[in-house]
Amino acid sequence: MNPDYALSPPSRVSFATHDRDVDVAWKAEVLERVRLSRWNTYVGLDGRQAARDFAERLRLDPGGDRRGSLHRGAEAALRCLIEHRAPERLWAPAHGYPGFARVASSCRIPLLTYADLDDLAGSRRGDLVVITTPSSPIATADAGDLLRALAGRGAQAVVDATFSLLDPDGVAGLAPLLRLTDAPVIVSASKSLGLAGIRLGVLLDGGPGPHVMPNPMELDVFQCAVWDAFIDGDNLRRRAHDVGTRQRKLHHRLRRALERLEAEVMYTSNSFAITVRRSSVPEPALGDHGWKEYPLLNALRLDASDRVVASIEAWTGAPS
């Protein structure tokens, strides 16, 4: 039995997770809440209040008439949005998160992909377009440009902010998008808060049509306890700050290491990873884990993690 339940990605695949766990004291708070709860009854949170608390703790102004809801991860949030908006087709960034295909399949709607603004010329009223900010693994068009283009075509948009940091700088970076559009925004604890082991996603819902009504029994005892401990005091803001600070430092180290390696960099705007030209990097320099290959793009997405950075630094002979 694996005592920490860690899931190892397949070869040449990376989950781009944060590499530092939460502290023991915070875990103790969660476990005490789990111990005191009843396991023989259904449990749940007021998902809307939880999402409002989330935005308030992070000083994230959702703007407009957005209402929040809490879900079992970002994919669950997107599925719930699709159930309420009932789009005819789902558009997602090409080469992006494979979960979009899972969501489209489970909702039984066609999935189309786009790499730039021109590809969205075929979008129409009744479509839902996922706009990821920041992008992964490579850049698509600017999120603001995409939103403005879709407004003229009648398609609806949803902003996937799962790779956005939620420290003060990250929140400030999201603010212009929130002011620009009333499109719903999805945030994932897996990436933004470095909690891949916990399935929690927030949907800040806006725009036309009925607002999302989350399933009140979507979360289990553990998820409720995690969220309750997060909202208590300054835990949420402190975790967002810690993740943001460390990811920016690791990202800077990775950029310097790639410069010494003379790698051809393709995309750097994602704080959790840097994408490089596959043919410009010797594979032995990367180590066994922490990178994902995109053969059609001749690209590698390298995690901004201590493991990957240390491996490249050792290869180039640079001090860690």
What does this structure look like?
The structure is a single chain. This protein is an alpha/beta fold and 320 residues long. It folds into two domains: 24-232, Aspartate Aminotransferase, domain 2 (3-Layer(aba) Sandwich), CATH 3.40.640; 239-316. Helix content is 38%, strand content 16%. The chain has ten helices and eleven strands. The chain has helices spanning 24-36, 47-57, 74-85, 99-107, 143-151, 168-180, 189-192, 221-231, 235-261, 306-316; strands at residues 67-71, 89-93, 111-114, 127-132, 156-160, 185-188, 201-205, 265-267, 273-277, 291-294, 299-303. The protein has a seven-stranded mixed sheet, with helices on both faces. Strands 8-9-11-10 form a four-stranded antiparallel sheet, covered by helices on one side. Helix 5 (143-151) links the parallel strand 4 (127-132) and strand 5 (156-160). The chain starts with 23 loop residues before the first helix and ends with a helix. The mean pLDDT is 89.
Top keywords for this entry?
320 residues; 2 domains; 38% helix; alpha/beta; Aspartate Aminotransferase, domain 2; four-stranded antiparallel beta sheet; 11 strands
Topology of this protein?
Blueprint: H1 24-36, H2 47-57, E1 67-71, H3 74-85, E2 89-93, H4 99-107, E3 111-114, E4 127-132, H5 143-151, E5 156-160, H6 168-180, E6 185-188, H7 189-192, E7 201-205, H8 221-231, H9 235-261, E8 265-267, E9 273-277, E10 291-294, E11 299-303, H10 306-316
Parallel strand pairs: 2-3, 2-4, 4-5, 5-6
Antiparallel strand pairs: 1-7, 6-7, 8-9, 9-11, 10-11
